[in-house]
TrEMBL record:
Keywords: ATP-binding, Nucleotide-binding, Transport. The keyword Zinc-finger does not apply. Residues 277-291 have a biased composition (Pro residues). It comes from Streptomyces buecherae. It comes from the Bacteria. InterPro entries: AAA+_ATPase, ABC_transporter-like_ATP-bd, ABC_transporter-like_CS, P-loop_NTPase. This is ABC transporter ATP-binding protein. Residues 3-236 form the ABC transporter domain. The keyword 4Fe-4S does not apply.
Length: 304
């Protein structure tokens, strides 16, 4: 399933939020949306999953304009996990939360059939949520909740996953576990990510938004250049693929680039690389000048 966003413009309160935004996500690709706060990332997600109608442009999922599809058909194709996805989960156990993912297939008043039960069970197994099935959702840790919300999205059997900062407020292990889960779904995914290192690890392609426009887009190393890191994110850093195949970002000893006047990308990258050179030996003090006769007499030992 392919996602295509073409020439998207979004306006809120007569203010342009997104201007001429375009991107593509091929079948099975994970595309990361990155950029400073207020750059329009979450607004773009809302336009993709039909929460906010664009003023201009087209969002296509599997070749169809999502805003021309019946609401239920569109909901079957796209599942969203948002930062406030648990706001309506009071008093529900985990299995009930995951089962809500089947709502687009039969409505709120429809009865779950064998296919629904199978989809819920498969999603819970995929996310390691089966042991939590009878737990009250409100009693779960942050990492457990995100697992359950991802399971709910997968139970929907979507063609497209839309994720808004899914790893926020999670500890390190929970973050990596979620990354593995997302990668393991094989579902085309559009994800807003705050952590650039996690974005570099997880994503096949990145789209950088800055002040409502696309500042860069493409493969990870083509996007996370010293210029982009400096000009968009305000840091001096370099992204490199290491021997283990993982792309990592190394920040300069003085990472803030707000007042950096460097314009040469090679020089900027070099300044971000950790130095492995042996520090220069200290310069020995200059040989003292010979004493004058008067000074020599002053320092002569006094006879006993």
């Amino acid at each position: 399933m392919k996602l295509t966003v073409d020439g998207l413009h979004v306006t809120l309160d007569h203010q342009p939020i997104l201007r001429d935004v375009s991107l593509d996500a091929a079948q099975g690709d994970i595309v990361g949306l990155i950029g400073p706060n207020g750059s329009g990332k979450s607004t773009l997600l809302r336009a993709v999953y039909r929460s906010l109608r664009p003023a201009q442009g087209v969002v296509r999922v599997a070749g169809d304009d999502v805003w021309k599809l019946p609401a239920r058909t569109a909901a079957r194709r796209t599942a969203a996990v948002l930062q406030d996805s648990n706001s309506n989960a009071v008093g529900l156990c985990v299995q009930e939360i995951v089962a809500l993912g089947r709502t687009p297939h039969h409505g709120l008043l429809g009865r779950d059939g064998a296919e629904d039960h199978r989809a819920v069970a498969e999603a819970m197994d995929a996310c390691g949520a089966r042991p939590l099935a009878e737990r009250d959702f409100a009693s779960l840790s942050g990492g457990e909740r995100q697992r359950v919300l991802l399971a709910r999205a997968l139970a929907q059997k979507p063609k497209l996953l839309v994720l808004d900062e899914l790893t926020n407020h999670l500890d390190i292990r929970a973050r990596f576990e979620l990354l593995d889960l997302i990668r393991g779904t094989g579902t085309t995914t559009l994800a807003v990510l705050h952590d650039l290192d996690l974005a570099a690890r997880l994503c096949d392609h990145l789209v950088v938004l800055n002040e409502g426009v696309v500042a860069a887009a493409g493969k990870v190393l083509d996007v996370l250049t010293p210029d982009v890191l400096r000009e968009v994110f305000g840091v001096r850093a370099v992204a490199e693929r290491h021997a283990d195949g993982v792309i990592r970002i190394t920040y300069g000893a003085d990472p803030l680039a707000l007042h950096d006047t460097t314009t040469d990308p090679a020089a900027s990258a070099a300044s971000a690389e950790p130095s492995d050179r042996t520090p220069p030996a200290p310069v020995p003090p200059a040989h003292p000048a010979p004493l004058t006769p008067t000074e020599h007499e002053a320092q002569a030992p006094v006879p006993g």
